[in-house]
Design goal:
Layout (H helix, E strand, L loop, with lengths): L11 E2 L11 E4 L12 H14 L6 H14 L4 H15 L10 H24 L13 H9 L4 E9 H10 L8 E5 L8 H11 L7 E5 L2 H9 L3 E5 L11 H9 L4 E3 L5 H8 L3
Helix pairs in contact: 1-2, 1-3, 1-4, 3-4, 5-10
Length: about 280
Amino acid sequence: MEQQFLPGTEIEIVNENVVRGQLRHLLFDFDGTISLLREGWQNIMGPVCVEMICGDHPATPEIEEEVRRMIDETTGIQTIFQMERLEEMVREKGLVPEDKVLTPAEYKQVYLDRLMVPVRQRIARLQAGELTVDQVTVGGAMRFLELLSKRGVHMYVFSGTDRDDVRNEAGIVGAAPFFEEIWGALPSKEEYSKEKVIRDIMARHELSGPQVLAVGDGPVELRNVKDAGGVALGVCSDETTGKGWDMHKRERLLRAGADILVADFREADKLVPYLFAD
């Protein structure tokens, strides 16, 4: 299928029939959509998973590919659910003795202990003035939030990252004031899911589908909002640079049903009027 772009932009219009101009409530993923503080998390989770599955045995290309596929398909979901899948994979492969198999919560802690090393380093560099906010956020993200806030819409974060962490990091990059609520994973995984957030908001405010927009770089949030009849804006962010297209993400978000695709928000001044059918 030939790509269609908003004239004079790199804003890809996948669904020309999407209903625009009715947006009232916007739900944002955080990591990779707004913040780059956790850039490279996949490169930490992947080796952790392979290490836990293989134990003392050498890794195989097949296991590495299976892990890569699992992470790709579950991007955006709560970390604990990814770790539940990891535990299943550990048991399926049978390379680790039963007494060495950890719980999903223990696997999650191993992963977070390693992930937070570079995250804390970035935060320290930002606070010391060695990095700027622009260097730790997706290109144009803050401008996009600023323009949306002037439209009087209600904006929320719904992240798979632990709630306290995502609230802290949203504050650090200066995004927190734009959002009415910042949701993230809770100790009891039954209490929170992106699907539940969308369902609750639509019921509470008596919304129809086109009044809700999900903005994210993972398939989970886009599928959830599409299932509810909402509009899906996929962010194909290259997290290493914060701008430009990650074509692998594009393919993933197309499969998830994205209506509109952007590489970043550097064309926010054209994207916002398009979303609101000006």
